[in-house]
């Protein structure tokens, strides 16, 4: 029989009347429970936000992107593309010519991000779920089509149904003095709008067009591109393929994964997650300090009992364990209840989405959550460590009673 644990349970559960100390212990338990629950929920929301952004980027960006280390264009020779396509794990290779340009439609105009791609871009099927209106089409029977983002559609009042009004793209000619009054200062290309897509506000100024038209507009040579986008086969090890691609392209080009392109955003989310976790950790610490005060008052109240225990042959380590166990009962009960409630809230939010985003422009209706085992374990360990630290001094004081 574990005598210290039995006595500690008697102190906590078997009081004939509730004193101020017992109510303070209950308050401490509630504080630890609420802090633990909040920490689990908030960390899961940050995990959900990170996962949501990865899904958004996966809808538009490629698995791997090859770009020049200096400048904004490079020569993608047929030999280079053939060498890249032979690398195990490479599924589709898309040549891209991308830059800012001026778009006109009717009497309206706006600055857009023109992205010229070859025909296999649509084979990636990334935009299938993001299409709002029209169809995904870039070329047919010698006609060049453009797929525009919803933000461009709103700025220019574009309609895919109207096949008579062209979308005109203008780009300054190199070597020409810039002047809006000089008609020869711009290269021009006209497109028929085939479809409208919406992913997220970050991509609201994009216009997708055939790469040959974009190269002509930008004044590129036939093999000049701004990047090569590579889609990998499912189940491919991205780290190994990235290294193989880097070895194939040499030192003048850089290979970046989708996460590399958005590393600043992920870093910002993780920093916010860290500071939020520290803030909620202080809340758990405050609740643990309440445990310190309740145990200190309990030691004062139970001095007579402690003397009796010493008279019956109890040792100082045994008395210390009694009050350490008392603190553990308070804290672990609160922490366990907080973990269960936090996990339950996250699972309910993930399935039913009862906490809404509150904005009509959001791409999702409810806050995203994703439970991570490491976060749950970290929260439990944090509560246990704080409990030990705050319970040690009152337990030591009880052991020193004469």
TrEMBL record:
Its main location: membrane. GO terms for biological process: lipoprotein localization to outer membrane. Residues 25-247 form the MacB-like periplasmic core domain. Keywords: Cell membrane, Membrane, Transmembrane, Transmembrane helix. GO terms for cellular component: plasma membrane protein complex. InterPro entries: ABC3_permease_C, Lipoprotein-release_system, MacB_PCD. It is found in: Cell membrane. It holds the Pfam family FtsX. Belongs to the ABC-4 integral membrane protein family. LolC/E subfamily. This is ABC3 transporter permease protein domain-containing protein.
């Amino acid at each position: 029989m574990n005598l210290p644990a039995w006595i500690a349970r008697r102190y906590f559960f078997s009081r004939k009347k509730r004193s101020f100390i017992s109510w303070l212990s209950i308050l401490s338990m509630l504080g630890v429970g609420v802090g633990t629950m909040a920490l689990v929920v908030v960390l899961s929301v940050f995990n959900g936000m990170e996962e949501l952004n990865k899904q958004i980027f996966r809808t538009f960006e490629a698995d791997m992107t090859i770009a020049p280390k200096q400048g904004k264009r490079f020569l993608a020779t047929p030999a280079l593309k053939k060498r890249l396509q032979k690398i195990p794990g490479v599924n589709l290779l898309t040549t891209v010519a991308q830059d800012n340009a001026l778009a006109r439609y009717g009497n309206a105009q706006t600055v857009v991000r023109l992205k010229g791609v070859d025909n296999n871009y649509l084979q990636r099927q990334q935009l299938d779920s993001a299409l709002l209106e029209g169809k995904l089409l870039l070329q047919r029977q010698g006609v060049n089509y453009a797929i525009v983002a919803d933000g461009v559609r709103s700025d220019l009042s574009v309609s895919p149904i109207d096949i008579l009004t062209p979308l005109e793209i203008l780009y300054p000619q190199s070597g020409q003095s810039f002047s809006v009054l000089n008609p020869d200062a711009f290269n021009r290309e006209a497109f028929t709008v085939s479809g409208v897509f919406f992913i997220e506000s970050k991509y609201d100024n994009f216009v997708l067009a055939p790469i040959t038209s974009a190269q002509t507009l930008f004044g590129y040579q036939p093999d000049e591109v701004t990047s090569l986008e590579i889609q990998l086969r499912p189940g491919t090890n991205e780290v190994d393929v990235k290294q193989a691609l880097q070895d194939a392209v040499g030192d003048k080009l850089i290979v970046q994964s989708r996460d590399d392109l958005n590393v600043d955003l992920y870093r910002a989310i993780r920093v916010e997650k860290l500071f939020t976790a520290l803030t909620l950790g202080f809340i758990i610490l405050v609740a643990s300090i309440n445990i310190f005060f309740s145990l200190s008052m309990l030691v004062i109240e139970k001095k007579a009992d402690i003397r009796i225990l010493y008279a019956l042959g109890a040792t100082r380590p045994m008395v210390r364990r009694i009050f350490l166990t008392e603190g553990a009962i308070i804290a672990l009960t609160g922490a366990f209840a907080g973990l269960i409630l936090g996990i339950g809230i996250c699972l309910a939010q993930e399935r039913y989405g009862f906490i809404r985003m509150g904005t009509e422009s959001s791409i999702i209706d409810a806050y995203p959550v994703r439970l991570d085992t490491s976060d749950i374990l970290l929260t439990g360990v944090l509560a246990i460590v704080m409990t030990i630290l705050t319970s040690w001094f009152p337990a030591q004081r009880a052991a020193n009673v004469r």
